[in-house]
Amino acid sequence: MEIGKAYVDFVKKHSNYYKAMIYFENNDCSAVPFRGIRENYLKENNPLKYSEQTIIQGIADGSIRSDIPPIIMAQILWAQMTGVLQFIATKQKILEFSGVKAEDILISQYEIAKNGIMNKD
């Protein structure tokens, strides 16, 4: 959960950088000259690697369920959090219109993720 919270903190502190990341992730950047640099950086500093290692530790200590491969669980959690953060970052009007606070969505996402990976045996 701490990795997810760090991700949220980054988005809050650096919202313009995050919006740029969303843009480049959602558009074809194959012609961008720095694409190779970005790919090499992500291979060496892949945030999913840290999530996967944490999940493996949780499986070993019995706190995280073991029926889903750790790399798949890490990717699912990353995708869920990214989707929620993108929604919050880009759909402020929808949140305002519905009277929902971004913080409440984040708290609920943490609970959904925590309960989804928890070992209930």
On the 0 to 100 scale, the average pLDDT is 80
**Helical element count?**
7
What is the straight-line distance between the termini? Answer: 20 Å
The helix/strand order is: HHHHHHH
Fraction in beta strands: under 5%
User: How would you describe the shape?
Assistant: flat
User: What portion of residues is helical?
Assistant: over 70%
* Gyration radius, in Å: 16 Å
Question: What count of domains describes the coordinates?
Answer: 1
Structural class by sheet pairing and helices: mainly alpha
Describe this structure in words.
With 121 residues, this protein is mainly α. It has one domain (2-117). Helices cover 77% and strands 0% of the residues. The protein has seven helices and no strands. The protein has helices spanning 2-13, 15-26, 35-44, 47-61, 70-90, 92-98, 102-117. Helix 1 crosses helix 2 (15-26), helix 1 (2-13) runs parallel beside helix 5 (70-90) and helix 5 runs antiparallel to helix 7. The longest helix has 21 residues, at 70-90. The protein starts with a helix and ends with a helix. 10% of the residues are buried. The mean pLDDT is 80.
For this entry, give a set of tags.
121 residues, mainly alpha, 77% helix
Write the SSE topology.
Layout: H1 2-13, H2 15-26, H3 35-44, H4 47-61, H5 70-90, H6 92-98, H7 102-117
Helix pairs in contact: 1-2, 1-5, 4-5, 5-7
